[in-house]
Amino acid sequence: MGIEKRNVASTYCELHCVHGTWGTRETSGAGAVAHIQLEGFSHLSEEDIRELERICGPEDVLCSGPLLEDYSHDEMLRVRGVPEAVVFPETTGEVSSILRYASARKIAVTPRGSGTGLCGGAVPVFGGIVLCTTKMNKIIEIDRENLTATVEPGVLLLTLHETVEKLGFLYAPDPGEKTATIGGNINTNAGGMRAIKYGVTRDNVRGLEVVLPSGEILELGGKHAKNSTGYSLMNAFIGSEGTLGVVTRAVLKLLPLPRRTLSLLVPFDSLGEAIRAVPKVLSTGILPQSIEFAERNVIFAAERYLGKKFPHTGAPSYLLIRVDGNSVGEVTSMMEAIGDACLEAGAIDVLIADTQERQKAIWDARGAFLAAIKSGNQVDECDVVVPRDRIAELVEYTKIVSERTGVRIESFGHAGDGNLHIYVIRDSIPDDEWEKRLEKAMDLLYEKGEELGGLVSGEHGIGYAKRKYMLKNLSPGEIAIMRKMKAIFDPQGILNPGKVV
Amino acid sequence: MGIEKRNVASTYCELHCVHGTWGTRETSGAGAVAHIQLEGFSHLSEEDIRELERICGPEDVLCSGPLLEDYSHDEMLRVRGVPEAVVFPETTGEVSSILRYASARKIAVTPRGSGTGLCGGAVPVFGGIVLCTTKMNKIIEIDRENLTATVEPGVLLLTLHETVEKLGFLYAPDPGEKTATIGGNINTNAGGMRAIKYGVTRDNVRGLEVVLPSGEILELGGKHAKNSTGYSLMNAFIGSEGTLGVVTRAVLKLLPLPRRTLSLLVPFDSLGEAIRAVPKVLSTGILPQSIEFAERNVIFAAERYLGKKFPHTGAPSYLLIRVDGNSVGEVTSMMEAIGDACLEAGAIDVLIADTQERQKAIWDARGAFLAAIKSGNQVDECDVVVPRDRIAELVEYTKIVSERTGVRIESFGHAGDGNLHIYVIRDSIPDDEWEKRLEKAMDLLYEKGEELGGLVSGEHGIGYAKRKYMLKNLSPGEIAIMRKMKAIFDPQGILNPGKVV
């Protein structure tokens, strides 16, 4: 086991360091003064590596070789930082020991699941240890009476979905990225396509076991459906992107699996018309499971990527709608009411997918949108969320940004909940020109999002890449409080340094 | 306007001060050291009163006369503390000015809505100012496109329900106490009867405007259905019982109003059987809007209290179940499946209430349970929440506690979500004996709740009266973090002192 690749922390944040200023940061104002040390982390010595091996077993510590590179970026590839060691703990006790040791030695620790994030949240921009939860991947219990699943953080979303569905249950959150871990979903408060009816990850977590940087283990919430016992620390961890503690176990809410689903593919003459149909759909009094939108270009990309034909590509824009219920009669009457509402709102047609195959064709394509857009190209993403009635305006504005900056922009997303995924695409733009145009495009998009009452992130988080925009989007008072919260849980700032606040 | 009744802070906490020890409290451990001053509050001078009158207008400041007594207790009457002044701000600006002034003068401020709490959360145990939100009672906007209601904190739950239902929407949280304010519901994270299907207040709040003790105004969240932009400060305020800030505006989630509801009244031979039927009901794959349980004694009390006959009183125990949907066919098929499940689980019969009148008879009685038990009697309450499958055990244990302590105990509550309301009833027990037996009974009940994996409060909060039990129930680490959170938002400890942590 060599250690020659360990002292590489100096390679951090090659692309994005312009967005942050490092150093000792002091948050002041009324109340506890919070000192968060943002540098001065120790590099890993041979002794440190031996201690990590002692804690986890040598097979669960990676500190050299080409595999290390896999843990130096996430899915978006834009933020980079090479870890000095990657550890794969298998128990809460091991996580606690790692964190206690890292605290004592002041080593940066970056928690990571599958690394499917898009904002650099799991990238070790200060080097140090990557704490990867992929070996904590057991579904511990499915409790049929309390309708809960107790899981380790490394369980993949697709594994959880398959497991509980076989038993007649639904775990409601349904982000497009099914190879993400549940721990990652909790840390970003992932939303997904079923949020309009069933809420986001936050609404579907009942309890968490969390390890603090000190090594202390907290049990928060449990199998209870209600809780008014003191401040909700559990909710502080959800969406905190691994900056406050490491989630080592979660109790998730299950629902009875709806027996029937039915999907509608609704073509429109323009995206504006499609999006303006959404309130009309909701005014039927029916809450669909999902209402997604897409333009033809994105659908073509998905067809190419999957090598499969989409059921309809003759229109410029589409709504993809899915309803669920317990009987054919129930979903049929939902479908009829929604179909009528769409036609009244100007839809060209309403196509019904009532077989498993036809539904699969639609939702497989939807699931492939991101991969299709990224395929063979460099992109960056804006995950802004606006009030539902402002989406059309924002999507129309992306065309203006595209013209003004000379970059291609594609978008798709959750028409039902106001969360857009806007992709700025490089194509063949040369290096320096690309960075300049990308920054300009992002600045314009986030500015417009804010003007429309939006927030920087609907479901992908802030991570490293979106800090600049969050600092602009939220009030200084709010940011100051967040920094003080960080200092409560992680006074030395060793946990996922450089992220969020 | 006299001021002779102002210096009465010495009358605070007559009954419960044994549970708390006051003084300067220092939370230590890793991280920021949090100093929360718990005494040394200033009494109100004539000049202070004049300043409050200048801020709110003299008609909105009450500082003498018999009305002051109304603000010295809540619905439970057990915790008492007379305010030196009650102010009724009408704008966020006024709230901000009051808090800024109180901070500068170090005057205790206790936020209050309708005072329907049961744990002393809104009782000014340190005297000072009661900040009553009842004049901030406007429904500012119903947004049909974004499915949100924007309201001031003093709006009553019943007003909100009526207003949105007329427009075809549902505000889902449905606590029994309909004269509570929305601000109070947010501060206790109230749950209610529809939580099993629609979640608790936390799940139905999209955005908050909050004023900190410093006077600073924060806007948190908004009309967005998703938000992964930094730590969720909004969730820190929900359930914080007015100890971190004053909620001055809320954006609430609306749902399309289900067009049909149907209620079932299901008699059982024993409460154990009734409660053990709940998982069988849920295994039908149908999520009812509500599953409540009650014993005959409580129903008799409600009949006497309302002067109305309950549809059935021949059995010892009942489940009250309500389903909702959009068509007669849908709710009928739900009812049939649930009815069959109840009969299989040993129900004596299944009575269907399909008219508005019959449904009203059941749910009016359910709504009157608490008032009926309290009527002409002294009681104290235990609002424990346990995993749904442990309720039967806890209810059976209440009989043992009743025998061991010689006090009458009645319970009813939310069979669907594990939240029990257990009432210890005084009847004709003499003063000193009552306090002794009550304390013994409460200790036993909370101990058992904890043994069953329960938490101290499901939906009524901790307030003043339940602090002792929360401090036992949660880990020292969790409590230490909560105290540090309190110090971030309220470093001087002027806001609702003596409550929660």
Mean pLDDT of chain A: 90
Oligomer: homodimer
What is the third-level CATH name, the topology of the largest domain in chain A?
Uridine Diphospho-n-acetylenolpyruvylglucosamine Reductase, domain 2
Enumerate the spans of chain A where pLDDT stays under 50 for 5 or more consecutive residues.
1-38
CATH homologous superfamily assignment of the largest domain in chain A? Uridine Diphospho-n-acetylenolpyruvylglucosamine Reductase, domain 2
Radius of gyration from the alpha-carbon trace of chain A, in angstroms:
23 Å
Kindly give the count of domains of chain A: 4
- Number of helical regions of chain A: 14
Strand order of the largest sheet of chain A: 17-14-16-15-19-20-18
Secondary structure category of chain A:
alpha+beta
How widely separated are the two ends of chain A? 36 Å
Q: Give the second-level CATH assignment, the architecture of the largest domain in chain A.
A: 2-Layer Sandwich
The strand count of chain A comes to 20
Which CATH C-level class of the largest domain in chain A is it?
Alpha Beta
- Which range does the strand content of chain A fall in? 15-25%
Furnish the topology, listing elements before pairings:
Two copies of one chain form a homodimer.
Chain A: E1 25-27, E2 34-36, H1 46-56, E3 61-62, E4 85-87, H2 92-105, E5 109-112, E6 129-132, E7 139-143, E8 148-151, H3 157-166, E9 169-170, H4 182-188, H5 195-198, E10 205-211, E11 217-221, H6 233-237, E12 246-253, E13 255-256, E14 260-268, H7 271-282, E15 290-295, H8 296-306, E16 317-325, H9 328-344, E17 351-353, H10 356-374, E18 379-382, H11 391-405, E19 408-414, E20 419-425, H12 431-451, H13 467-473, H14 476-489
Parallel strand pairs in A: 4-6, 5-6
Antiparallel strand pairs in A: 1-2, 3-4, 7-8, 8-12, 9-13, 10-11, 10-12, 14-16, 14-17, 15-16, 15-19, 18-20, 19-20
Cofactor (chains A, B): FAD
InterPro entries (chains A, B): FAD-bd_oxidored_4_C, FAD-bd_PCMH, FAD-bd_PCMH-like_sf, FAD-bd_PCMH_sub1, FAD-bd_PCMH_sub2, FAD-linked_Oxase-like_C, FAD-linked_OxidoTrans_Type4, Oxid_FAD_bind_N
Domain FAD-binding PCMH-type (chains A, B): 79-257
